[in-house]
Amino acid sequence: MRVAGQEKELTVGTNVDLCHGAFLDLHRLWLELPPLRETTALDELELNRELSDACHRTGVPEWQSLVKTILDWIAEASGAERSRRIQALNRLIKEIKVQASHLERLRSPQEQKPAEETRQQIHQLLKSFVDAFSVKSVA
User: Fold this and answer.
1) Domain ranges within the chain, ordered by starting residue
2) CA 72 – CA 109 distance, rounded (Å)
3) pTM of the predicted model, to two decimals?
């Protein structure tokens, strides 16, 4: 066999060495990666932090019980349904971040009313999200 312009004869020992090396690389990678369940749990924990931080930072009224309800709703599901719920939560967080970004620009005393309206809009996003899956659960 030609390898980079050099003649090299592959023997059974060479093939075994190549396979063993590839196996060691895969084994090392497997040891370095967290288990899938752990990765999913970390992703959910990160989503929880993002949502809670955004609500807390912007001063959304009565956000704690709504966030807890959302997280409990996700925890009730498994498999593909859980993934679907996590994706829905991701979309909600993106919407909340847009509103939070708008709120951060409203800092002057003259902008207190628009700021409060934005906080209420974020609260309404949370409430509508909870109401939407509550209705689906009942139906």
Assistant:
1) 2-32, 36-138
2) 38
3) 0.66
